[in-house]
Design goal:
The structure is a homodimer of 728-residue chains. Chain A is α/β, with parallel strands linked by helices and 728 residues long. Chain A folds into 3 domains: 139 residues, Chitobiase/beta-hexosaminidase domain 2-like (Chitobiase, domain 2, 2-Layer Sandwich); 336 residues, Alpha-Beta Barrel (TIM Barrel), CATH 3.20.20.80; 135 residues, Alpha-glucuronidase, C-terminal domain (Alpha-d-glucuronidase, C-terminal Domain), CATH 3.90.1330.10. Chain A has 23 helices and 16 strands. In chain A, α16 crosses α17 and α21 runs antiparallel to α22.
């Protein structure tokens, strides 16, 4: 089997591969002759450079920068106010769009007969018009996307603007370049050599982000290090910011609440303390002096050991407002995370963020957005939507997603996450009656906010292919596309990504698309089916540990699955923790009713007897086993589908995916067998027929230890007796 | 200024760039038609693949694998025993070489008149013959090197074999992928995905190593982790070993002396304990079962906190022999490090290794080699050679070098190390009269050893260009070339590397070569001139800290420079620590005599009065200042030379080097000013005229703190008061 030339994945979806069909290639060459930029700015230069790079690669010949916007085959770049927009009749259309909006308009020459179009001899031109320069850049990337996915340039007429103002990546990158929950190598930010040397890869990162409309990058871990707020680091941050700026990307940082104490020895970090307030103003002023378009902060406070306003008896709102006030005059945004819970609070962990934040609605400054994870626990393979969405009408809420597959197989498992994201976005909060989706909450249309956004914990590291698994970049891509337009479908996004990343060949695209779309459900099935959640091993989030029952209760597995002789699942009905009360009617009643609760969330909300019959006719126990098996089977189908695609993609990426699927299949079995064997100690029921025997015993699974799993520090620390002192 | 296309440095010196001169290109095309392999093995396949890749790239057209060794332009690959060797008349020549040796022989066709050669119409063929398959591989790489550096294929007649048996890289890589003293990113070994997925980069690593004759790779840090000896990790190690095998590279590991306790709960690690002996045999047998060509171990014992035989009152030799016995039946080598010192021992740190190891000469097993650093302290910019060389005639000694510039500016400073290496290799130990160089000690010719070798702590990480600084790969290259043939000159090696890495254009090569050859002396001058050593900042080895005087005395700077009101330098004459006694006569007397001691080692061996006149006519104080200034000036000359080369190399690498030289110039000034200001507090003398004023005050230099410097863990740990408990 012959393959196309090896690729290492570095180019991501920006490969701009020439069509293999000679006619299609000829047509591109006829249609595209020169890139003509009206005006000048770093952003317009970036747009032009990208077009020349992309069109040159698509056409297999250099596309020059031209001067004359009337030449046939010209691609004309212009922002609002340019005369040329009138010639294309788009000035009006552009007027209706926000500052990041763009139009792309093909225009036949007035004197060219229709027949020349039909013959493929295109005498026309294409305008890429932006409301501002960055709109032009987005239009350029969109134009390239259309061509790279096989659209005909003659047909293009697009007007587009983002539905959300903030479209951000959260890098949980530490200053030592390790990444919390990073599975694709180490941080791109080489703090040691910044600001004097900026790795060219940082520009390629910005290109990739801009190509899908991402407009902000939070450089540092939410478990924050105050050192980044010192002047030497701000210089380093600014060096990155200057590279990103041309691509419309603003830099954000995480702020550690106790920084005034840690950096300058203040006796307190109390938000009501005048010196503390002055400290934040001074620090923020310093940042803006060096980086005038600094975006703002993300803060994780009073959660998982981070300091916060509650150390001083102040509310989360007071804490947020302290820093928001320092940012306000510079236009900076304060993103305050609602991911809070406390093992000393007896309340169901899934309820605590709502309990704590809902009463604060209305008490935040205008430049504060509360950042809410998609579900109420923590980035599990499946969760119900977070009940805060819709419940804080006076507060802008940002949706926080996770691209790093912390609980979904890290960068080793193929798992396309857009279906998970869409599940949340499409959830109905009923906040203003039916149709009040999470998407409409976060885009501001439901509750009339202009501070809107989505952010995602990235899966990006310094692995050559950026995200580790050759398919993992699809999640970066999908996040950007959905943040731009949450109405796009998972399938359409996946297809776009596949065509640009691998091939436009339908014989490749169709089966690969099927793999991607089935992949997230496969992970749910072999890890946490039927609404189970938080079953992972201790100390790291890799591999199964349903037996985990030591340490903080709300970090154990038994806290969440509650398996016993009667059944399994967390009773969150009024008979249990009553988490359902945080959801609006009519959803609340549906979730609270075991018979009506969707099966995929059944054990999230209910403790269900082992012999309870389910929709399939199987008992709960049988269904649980069947789902675990189904998950493994789905991975094997992926292996088989991928095997059939040998030759359709290059050997390097083919083998990479093939090997990782082999690991995924092993680990799917590991999850299945460890969980089924463990739950069987409660159900006392036989595993149904047709189910493969487990490879190891439960004790063997429990005895497995994994050290140095990426994304977290879990060193091998042998329990060894003290050695005798050295003697000679 | 136009540049050649951007390169990222990944290809190292294996770029195989076509000659720009059309005649030279035509000549190559005429001379090279097909690669014909006689016999088959993974190693021959690797040789053939590399030749086709390299010759294809050099010729700008595909070079096929052929079947007929008689076709004009054939490059014939064959190992001993093949019939074709006779046709080239090289069978005899090959017979005289060791198993890794090779010949390359061009042969005109018998019937081709001389005139056709003169006309450039080469009807001949080229043989690359190896004693074994790996010899063929080395020959293939050598042939490519000759062509890539501009040699004419018609002229080639080479016979070569390595002077040393072991030519090893030491990776100080931890299992969490951090690298101790690693300045070019993180470990290439992705333990998490091994053995199921092996990054293709590992093969490219093996190619690069093999191209310069490196035949072993010690995968793990000498500060060892016993986990690597467990079965799951041995499987991972073996996966790498299988990739390396085709390239003649064997895998080695570091062993932690207390592993029997840590892994299996043995009550002791005493080398005389039968269970401990059995434990090592069992573990080693397990390794060889999985990896039959495993190379052996490196052990750091009873040094810097590592456990060792002295914890049980046993000698270093007994410790080495314990593990050597387990390895012996498999042909494995035990490399035992002589880098030992103890702050509880009052003796001069520079003397301790000699004191401890010399008495052990003759008590090591035959498969033990004692691994000795080039100098008696620790990889300083300049040290005298280690006095153990020549002093242990009955023991094979390996020379340990460091490519990672732990004390020479990390991967930020341009510093070509071959002159440092050669300085050691060419040092005369007088062990068997004049001419008893270190090179002759380690190649076994002086004291009749066959277990011979050199190893080097690598500077390789997962940075795209492998070694961080675009010039740092020259040190990897030079190490391999010198390990193959220590008689090569620094200049010849540098020129080879430059031609392959950048360009054959003399207008580039000459000035770049001059930069490289001057670079190490520049570092000595701006960091530690005149024999000074160990002046770096505390906690990491980055930046100056001549004032460091806290903690372990033998880790302070004041221990080594001993500056006082009278003068500066460590008196190692008989009036002082008498370290000179470890050196043989006549060297001993020369070093002990301040008037005869080479100036570049003056303060290593002598405490010299500030006003002592030196060869220049300047006083010591004046000379010290002059040398520091000279170091800075040398960096500025490098900047200027490099600036002149814009356009001669691609823009990406040009800018990278340019930016790093800017950092180097800043840091050279930092070293100069911090050291001169500090030493001035003792000398009380004015800085001579013509010396630039320091940018900061001494107190400001002393107050600088650097966190998260690569290569070591030095986190920012703020001294902050405990926060009040959370309350709501």
């Amino acid at each position: 089997m012959t393959h196309p030339p090896d690729e290492d994945g570095y180019e991501l979806w920006l490969r701009y591969s020439s069509p293999r069909d000679p006619e299609a290639l000829l047509r591109l060459r006829q249609q595209l002759s020169a890139v003509v930029t009206v005006g000048s700015s770093p952003t317009l230069a970036a747009a032009s450079a990208e077009l020349r790079r992309g069109l040159g690669s698509l056409c297999g010949r250099a596309i020059p920068a031209g001067m004359d916007p009337t030449v046939p085959g010209a691609i004309v770049l212009a922002a609002s106010g340019a005369q040329v927009l009138n010639a294309f009749g788009v000035a009006e259309k552009l007027h209706g769009l926000g500052r990041e909006g763009f139009v792309i308009q093909a225009k036949a020459d007035d004197d060219s007969p229709d027949s020349s179009l039909a013959s493929g001899l295109w005498g026309g031109r294409t305008l890429i018009g932006g409301v501002t320069d960055v709109g032009v850049l987005y239009g350029a990337f969109h134009f390239l996307r259309l061509l790279a996915t096989g659209h005909d340039v003659v047909d293009i007429s697009v007007a587009s603007e983002p539905k959300l103002a903030l479209r951000l990546l959260n890098h949980w990158d530490n200053l030592d370049r390790t990444i919390e929950r990073g599975y694709a190598g180490f941080s791109l930010w080489d703090w040691q050599k910044l600001p004097d040397y900026v790795d060219p890869r940082c520009r390629d990162y910005a290109r990739a982000c801009a190509s899908v409309g991402i407009n902000g990058s939070v450089l540092t871990n939410v478990n924050a290090n105050s050192l980044v707020l010192t002047e030497p680091y701000i210089e380093k941050v600014a060096a990155l910011g200057r590279v990103f700026r041309a691509y419309g990307i603003r830099v954000f940082l995480t702020a550690r609440f106790s920084a005034p104490i840690e950096l300058d020895g203040l006796p307190t970090a109390d938000p009501r303390d005048k010196d503390v307030q002055a400290w934040w103003r001074r620090r923020v002023d310093n940042i803006y002096r060096v980086l005038p378009d600094f975006g703002g902060f993300v803060v994780k406070a009073n959660s998982e050991g981070q300091p916060g306003p509650q150390n001083y008896g102040r509310s989360q709102a007071e804490g947020a407002n302290l820093i928001a006030d320092a940012l306000a005059e510079h236009g900076g945004v304060m993103m305050w995370r609602a991911f809070v819970y406390d093992h000393e609070v007896p309340e169901d962990r899934a309820k605590q963020a709502y309990s704590e934040f809902k009463p604060l609605d209305g008490s935040f400054r205008a430049n504060v957005a509360v950042q809410v994870k998609n579900g109420p626990v923590d980035f599990q393979p499946r969760e119900p939507y977070h009940p805060l969405f819709g419940a804080m009408p006076k507060t802008p809420l940002l949706l926080e997603l996770q691209l790093a597959q912390e609980y979904l197989g890290c960068a080793t498992h193929l798992c396309y996450l857009a279906p998970l994201f869409k599940e949340c976005l499409d959830s109905d909060t009923f906040a203003d009656g039916p149709g009040s989706t999470v998407a409409r909450v976060i885009d501001g249309s439901l509750q009339n906010h202009t501070l809107t956004g989505m952010c995602a914990v990235t899966n990006i590291g310094n692995d050559r292919n950026w995200c580790g698994h050759p398919f993992a970049a699809a999640n970066w891509y999908a996040f950007g596309r959905l943040a731009w337009d949450h109405a796009l479908s998972s399938g359409d996004i996946a297809e776009e990504w596949l065509r640009q990343t691998f091939s436009n060949d339908k014989r490749f695209v169709d089966p690969a698309l099927e793999m991607m779309l089935a992949s997230r459900e496969a992970v749910v099935d072999y890890m946490t089916p039927l609404g189970l959640h938080h079953l992972m091993a201790v100390g790291h989030h890799y591999g199964p540990g349903p037996w985990v029952n030591e340490g903080r209760p709300d970090w154990t597995s038994v806290y969440f699955h509650r398996a016993d002789a009667q059944g399994i699942g967390f009773d969150r009905t009024p008979r249990g923790s009553n988490a359902v009360e945080q959801y609006p009617e009519p959803l609340r009643a549906e979730l609270a009713d075991q018979a009506r609760c969707p099966e995929e969330l059944l054990l999230w909300f209910h403790h269900v007897p082992w012999d309870q019959p389910l929709a399939s006719g199987r008992t709960l126990w049988q269904e649980l086993c069947a789902r675990y098996q189904r998950g493994v089977d789905a991975v094997r189908r992926m292996q088989s589908s991928w095997g059939d695609l040998q030759g359709a993609v290059d050997a390097a990426r083919f083998v990479h995916v093939e090997n990782l699927l082999r690991i995924q299949e092993q680990e799917a079995r590991w999850w299945r067998d460890a969980c089924v064997l463990y739950f069987q100690t409660f159900s006392k029921r036989p595993v149904p027929e047709g189910y493969e025997p487990a490879e190891k015993t439960l004790d063997e699974y429990r005895a497995l230890r994994h050290y140095y799993v990426p994304g977290i520090s879990n060193p091998f620390v042998p329990k060894a007796p003290r050695l005798p002192a050295k003697s000679r």
